[in-house]
Specification:
With 349 residues, this protein is of the alpha/beta class. It contains 13 helices and twelve strands. The chain folds into two domains: 216 residues, inorganic pyrophosphatase (n-terminal core) (Alpha-Beta Complex), CATH 3.90.1640.10; 126 residues, Diaminopimelate Epimerase, Chain A, domain 1. The structure holds guanosine-5'-monophosphate and manganese (II) ion.
């Protein structure tokens, strides 16, 4: 069993570990929340932490702001997770009764949409675990580290800091592995460190079924999704003067391919596979919400986090960020292209 001072993985500050141990020393009613449109890391970290906190004897529950892709629904614990949009009464009751609220994989309460107001109104103690830039100051315990590959790696560190790696079951290991593999692009992004690999090695030793997880997440294509990818790639615009490539998908194109949540996952990355391209973007029309949802990716020093924050009401990491626009699809891309001139030196450097 590892101690807080000498364990290899502990990245939580000692004062945070102490505070967390104190908070969890009595049974709590816990609600764990990922960001809206939860991805593999958001679901893996919340479900993994939920299993751990339940093992400690707490009453713990995951509440997602909305639905998430089918390719994540094999994860242990998904059937007990509550969807705030679909199971609203149950969710509202649990949030109102919560004594502790964990917020995972985001650091700004605006990222949970409709749940925001309700959550802010509770008396619960907040714990944040997150790896995005510019954390807001709303939690009594903030474990924020932008050098981390994923929130799942941080949940591993949290469990390790508590001296509890022996409590990691195969269910917890499967959840955490899934989040790490998705947020690191299968261990290839710059955020993947030696520590990430050591955590992953331990998770496999504890029962994470790595090959099965890869198959369940990445090999679940449908003909509709592949045809939608074809459409997206056809729509790609390459701006050599700015080392930039962007893709658009209109609501009609999504409808024509029976779009389901998660179908566009990973499309934005194709732009970066072009030699020389440093900045890749996808603009996806969402008529129901009246917005264009945008994903930004970059290679090297160009910060898409800052770009998204400055121009598209978003944020994220240096090389992967998201944002949105209230303009039409056409106006949004025109506005986007008009911004590039200012960044030409950085994009061509
Ligand atoms: P994706 O493009 O895959 O949706 O998200 C890329 C990264 O940016 C993720 O870490 C995600 O949490 C973050 N992100 C996506 N959309 C938004 C947004 O609207 N606001 C902020 N602050 N972050 C976002
Ligand atoms: Mn993440």
């Amino acid at each position: 069993m590892s101690s807080v001072l000498n364990c290899i993985f502990a990245r939580m500050k000692l004062e945070n570990v102490k505070a967390l141990k104190k908070l969890l020393s009595a049974p709590q009613k816990i609600v764990i929340i990922p960001h809206k449109n939860p991805d593999g890391d958001a679901m893996g970290s919340t479900l993994g932490l939920n299993k751990y906190l339940t093992l400690l004897g707490h009453q713990s529950l995951v509440i997602t702001p909305n639905d998430y892709p089918d390719f994540l629904k094999w994860m242990p614990g998904t059937s007990a997770a509550i969807n705030f949009e679909k199971q609203n009464n149950e969710a509202v009751k649990a949030i109102k009764e919560a004594t502790v609220i964990f917020t995972l994989d985001f650091n700004d309460l605006r990222r949970i949409g409709q749940m925001h107001e309700l959550v802010v109104g509770t008396q619960a103690s907040f714990v944040m675990v997150d790896h995005h830039q510019s954390p807001h100051d709303y939690a009594s315990i903030t474990y924020s580290d932008v050098t981390m590959s994923s929130t799942c790696e941080m949940v591993y560190n949290l469990i390790d800091s508590m001296g509890d790696t022996d409590k990691i079951t195969s269910d917890i290991a499967n959840c955490l592995y899934a989040g790490i593999v998705t947020d690191t692009g299968s261990f290839k992004y710059a955020s993947t460190t030696g520590k990430t690999h050591r955590v992953v090695a331990n998770l496999i030793d504890k029962g994470a079924k790595n090959t099965e997880i890869h198959n369940k997440i990445f090999d679940t294509n449908t003909p509709d999704r592949l045809h939608l990818l074809g459409c997206a790639l056809k729509n790609m615009v390459i701006l050599k003067d700015y080392n930039t490539a962007y893709i658009t998908l209109s609501q009609k194109e999504l409808d024509d391919h029976n779009f389901k949540k998660g179908d566009t996952e990973g499309f934005v990355n194709y732009g970066l596979t072009l030699a020389g391209i440093r900045f890749a973007v996808i603009f996806i029309e969402n008529k129901e919400e009246g917005i264009i949802k945008i994903s930004f990716r970059s290679e090297g020093d160009f910060s898409v986090n800052e770009f998204a924050r400055d121009h598209f009401d978003g944020g994220g990491h240096t090389n992967a960020a998201g944002g949105k626009s209230d303009r039409s699809l056409k106006e949004t891309t025109e506005y986007f292209v008009s911004l590039l001139e200012t960044y030409q030196d950085q994009l061509l450097a």
